[in-house]
Structure formats: C-alpha cells, structure tokens
Fold:
Amino acid sequence: MKTLSIATKSEMLNLGNQIGQMLHPGAFVALYGDLGTGKSVLARGVASAFGIGSLTSPTFTIVQEYPTEPKLFHFDAYRLSDEEELYAIGFDDYLKEDGIILMEWANLVPGCLPKSRLDIRISGSGTEPRNVDLVPVGEEYSALVDAL
Structure:
C-alpha cells in the first residue's frame, strides 16, 4: 500500500491521469470514499489518459461506456440496491470485454469485485488535503503502485 497526500483538484486529476496511463486491458480500479472526497475527480483524470475530455457521471445509468482503445467502462454503484442488480445489467459481460473498468462506490458491491484489482481509498473533505491509499490486490498492480 502507498498513501499519497493530495492537496488540490489538479493534483487529483494528475494522479488519475498517471494511473490511467499505466492501466492495461482488463484492468479493474475500485474507488472508495465518502461523498465529496474526490472519486469522480480521480475518475476524470483516468479518463483524460484515454483522451476523454468530459466524463459523464453514471450515477443514474450505473455505467457509461467510452469507445477508447481499450474501452473504458465507468461504473457508479451508489444507487444499486444489491450486487444482484449489478449482475442484472450484464456486469459479467463487461468483465469479459478486456476493457478497463473504473468503479465508484465499490464498497457497496464487494462480492462483485475481481480478485485482482487496484483499490483506491480516498479520505478527507472540504478544503483539507485528501489521503489517497493505493492498495494493489494481486501481483499485477504492485508495480503500478510502486511506480507512482
């Protein structure tokens, strides 16, 4: 695990961009944190690494798909009532796509998360700096965390 202190929105965007540049096809990034901690800002930074200028929040649609190479799937589990609802929208199919999955509110669907992934836990609020814990789950994400 590596903990970073992020003081500004631009630093959070930059961190997301750096992470996005290192993700491989099939990568899974699980974002954790309360409302307003910066999950969506980090997600916008990841998307910018794929040339996406505007990331639409998937809060009501659950998932937004971007036709990048590899594809980027941005999930938001906030409004899901349970894990079965995620599978009902075809989550298994997204996992098989070999795209990159970025999931906000991953803590709400822990049984759906793959065994190998990058967990990013963000804490802090208001004008205080955020603590960003980068937790590699599986060998393939250790090198990514070490490189940041």
